[in-house]
Amino acid sequence: MLELEKAIRQSVMSSPAITTVVKMMESLPEDVQNQIAEHLREYVQDLHDELKWDNSFKKSQQKLVEAAKLAKQEIAQGLAQPMDYNQL
Length: 88
Description:
about 90 residues, elongated
């Protein structure tokens, strides 16, 4: 039995969708099951990374709005200078 399958079966909160996927995977050869499990691990990790990015962006959203307002104000007051990309 796959480690993913064991973890899912031991999980307290197994959804019908997960149960369906496990049943589908059980009909496949073990090497294919392992490939699917690896793809799922990578996919879930990508989702976790996206959630972290979204949370970070939400936390910084107000700071970005404030920075944009300040930039507009400086432009309106003639205090802004064109960016010199060679100095970056």
